[in-house]
Amino acid sequence: MKQQAMVAPVARRPLAVLAVAKPNANKRTGVVPKVAAVAEPSLDMYKRNPDGTIDLSAAPPFTLQDLRNAIPAHCWEKNTMKSFGYLAVDVAVVFGLAAAAYTVNQPWLWPLYWVAQGTMFWALFVVGHDCGHQSFSNNKTLNDFVGNITHSSILVPYHGWRISHRTHHANHGHVENDESWHPVPKSIYDKMEPLSRVGRLSLPWSMFAFPFYLWSRSPGKTGSHYDPSSDLFVPAEKPLVITSNTFMIGMIGILAAATVALGPLAMLNLYVLPYWLFVLWLDVVTYLHHHGASDPKEKMPWYRGEEWSYLRGGLTCLDRDYGIFNKIHHDIGTHVVHHLFPQIPHYSICEATEAIKPVMGPYYREPTKSPGPIPTHLIEPLVRSFRDDHYVADSGDVVFYQRDPNFGK
After folding, report:
1. If we measure between CA atoms, which residue out of 201, 193, 192 comes closest to residue 401?
2. Distance from first CA to last CA of the chain, Å, rounded?
3. What are phi and psi of 191, to 5 degrees?
4. Tell me, what's the pLDDT at 2?
5. Which of 102, 94, 100, 97 is nearest to 127 (CA)?
6. Mean pLDDT by 10 residues, the chain (409 residues)
7. Which one, of 126, 174, 147, 143, lies nearest residue 349 by Cα?
8. Tell me, what's the pLDDT at 200?
9. Residue 17's beta-bridge partner residues?
10. Given 3-state DSSP classes, what are the helix, strand and coil percentages for the chain, each rounded to the nearest 5?
11. Region of residue 223 (phi > 0: left; psi between -120 and 50: alpha; otherwise: beta)
12. By the 8 A CB rule, do 63 and 35 touch?
């Protein structure tokens, strides 16, 4: 049964000029953006549910090219110095926090440090993530080097993760082919061991799943991000996986040396506990990218077969407001545009999002604003999704999560 999305009527503007620039308007780069005139779809172009609401699981009345045309040309530009500027700030904060906490060394300070440093580890991950999408700079060699450094520093195999993440983007919203936080079909769900169900489908344990996913992927899939022979990779990618593993071994050596020099307790506080806070950040944010619509009545669609397309899969992503953390983690919560056009640098993602909203119309689900600096409003959709979203049907090209009333009993 299809879930219905309640969409209020919106007045149609006959034509929207979404990217306009005069020659030489961009003095910083000298680039002249193209002018794109994109008509906003009228409400009668949308497919309707039986009750008259717009069916957001149906194919939209716009194309991927329509969205691309709406984005100003300068949003696609990659500025290497700007990217390094963001990275430099992140690295300075990481070392500053560690130095301050180690120097003060007070019991009341360490929990604050764990949270702050875990958040900064997450920011470093996002920089490496952007390197993987080649949005850090126009130089692939530089991107991969920075990605290996930033990701290995937080014990993530850059190339192994980058390649599987590429699979996620290429198949987002597809039940079987997606790679990250994809739904479990009923037949696989029924065969899952109780411990696997708890680890994959319940709070808080699922929010610490990332290191285990790197080792053995998700239910129904096999392989490891560390194994060059895994079916995650094609033979030509084997040297890349080995390279990232070498960076990882180097980082483990650094951590071992630091443990000898500073002591196990110091490293527990300085690195191990912040690492698990980083994992929590990663799993919460990436889960909420694809689950738990702000409207409790709406279920997000998942696709198979001919109903799936790159555009429709990407439209199932959700933007989120993370309060004071939006800029700290480089606007990774602004995710719809990123999933459709991952080449756009993070510092242009908000402007690009504003540009495509008129074209997307009701297909853009406006994120609920954070009630304050801390995004406590996201607890409700997170808890609701884990309560209600357990599996999808084995058949059907447009499916929605279903709830197992006996889960946890």
Report:
1. 201
2. 26
3. -95, -10
4. 45
5. 94
6. 42 36 36 48 76 89 95 97 98 98 96 98 98 97 98 97 94 92 91 84 90 85 90 94 97 98 97 98 96 92 96 96 96 96 97 96 95 96 94 95 86
7. 126
8. 84
9. 37
10. 50, 5, 45
11. left
12. no
Say if CB 298 and CB 53 are below 8 A apart. Answer: no
Q: Give which of 129, 100, 30, 33 is closest to 351, Cα–Cα.
A: 33
Question: Which residue, 128, 27, 132, is CA-closest to 86?
Answer: 128
Which residue, chain included where needed, has tokens 């895994």?
A: 230
Token readout for 315 is 């439209």
Q: Where are the beta strands (DSSP E) in 82-230?
A: none
Cα 183 from Cα 176, distance rounded (Å): 8
Query: Can you give the pLDDT at residue 17?
Result: 37
Please tell me whether residue 162 adopts helix, strand or coil conformation. Answer: helix
pLDDT at residue 50, rounded to an integer: 84
The 8-class DSSP code of residue 376 comes to: G
Q: Would you state the pLDDT for residue 40?
A: 64
DSSP 20: -
Tokens of 289: 């990218």
**CA–CA gap between residue 268 and residue 98 (Å, rounded):** 12
Three-state secondary structure call for residue 85: helix
Residue 19 region by backbone torsions, left for phi larger than 0, else alpha for psi between -120 and 50, else beta: beta
pTM equals 0.87
Which two three-digit tokens encode residue 405? 């009333």
CB atoms within 10 A of CB 405: 8
Residue tagged 């360490």 (tokens)? 110
